[in-house]
């Protein structure tokens, strides 16, 4: 498969121990990759480099031109309506019609003229996804976008993100602490520890995935062990 992201020898430090220590990362076009790791492992630092928000030395750094990020907080401008938030910074003449389509894709057309502070948590994250999609990204970066949502809304968002990925075909990097979330969505799961990748697992389960099936349970146990958590045998 053609590499969309190709990084070799990426290192990042902030005056102390290295946050990222000479890591290599390849993401293929259209691939869905999940990144797991404990707090302080370097996940957010890596995402910022991929988003172009942070410069870092690397022997090789190949990134697509069109990239979008969805953060844990929706980061909507409260003084602009939903659709005006989505079109903010988009220079195309057809920005409004593309935004309307993005709102339809995320099931939020009926809230196009709403103010952000009137949205539920799930609606706000759907608006953030629409804002990312309107830029037609080749690489979609998701930085724990469901962490603040309740369990039922989070499950619905998983289905939405999967459907959007299938429709728009970007490569996706999902940063998460949720192993079940990674297994549900990703083609490949990476574990980052002390600035290095320590585990890579290919997930070949068919969609929709059963999180309590035998293969998913095996992967979960392997990841828990890698993250230093004793798997439950209850």
TrEMBL record:
Superkingdom per UniProt: Bacteria
Keyword Membrane: yes
Record domain ABC transporter: where: 5-219
UniProt xrefs under InterPro entries: AAA+_ATPase, ABC_transporter-like_ATP-bd, ABC_transporter-like_CS, ABC_transporter_ATP-bind, P-loop_NTPase
Keywords of this entry: ATP-binding, Cell membrane, Membrane, Nucleotide-binding, Translocase, Transport
Gene3D superfamilies associated with the record: P-loop containing nucleotide triphosphate hydrolases
GO molecular function: ATP binding; ATP hydrolysis activity
PROSITE patterns referenced in this protein's UniProt entry, alphabetically: ABC_TRANSPORTER_1, ABC_TRANSPORTER_2
UniProt record similarity statement: Belongs to the ABC transporter superfamily.
Record-given protein name: Sulfonate transport system ATP-binding protein
Organism: Rhizobium hainanense
């Amino acid at each position: 498969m053609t590499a969309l992201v190709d990084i070799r020898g990426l290192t990042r430090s902030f005056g102390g121990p290295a946050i990222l220590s000479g890591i290599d990362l390849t993401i293929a076009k259209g691939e869905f990759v999940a990144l797991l790791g404990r707090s302080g492992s370097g996940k957010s630092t890596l995402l910022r480099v991929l988003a172009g928000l942070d410069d870092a030395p690397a022997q090789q750094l190949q990134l697509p031109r069109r990239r979008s990020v969805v953060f844990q907080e929706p980061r909507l401008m409260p003084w602009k309506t939903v659709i005006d938030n989505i079109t903010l910074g988009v220079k195309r003449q057809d920005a409004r019609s593309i935004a309307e389509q993005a709102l339809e894709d995320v099931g939020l057309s009926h809230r196009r003229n709403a103010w952000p502070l009137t949205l539920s948590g799930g609606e706000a994250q759907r608006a953030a996804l629409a804002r990312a999609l309107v830029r037609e990204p080749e690489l979609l970066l998701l930085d724990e976008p469901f962490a603040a949502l309740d369990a039922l809304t989070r499950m619905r968002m998983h289905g939405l993100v999967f459907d959007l990925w299938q429709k728009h075909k970007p490569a996706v990097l999902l940063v998460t602490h949720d192993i079940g979330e990674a297994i549900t969505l990703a083609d490949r799961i990476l574990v980052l520890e002390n600035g290095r990748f320590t585990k890579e697992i290919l997930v070949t389960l068919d969609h929709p995935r059963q999180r309590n099936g035998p293969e998913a349970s095996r992967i979960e146990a392997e990841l828990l062990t890698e993250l230093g958590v004793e798997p439950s045998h209850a």
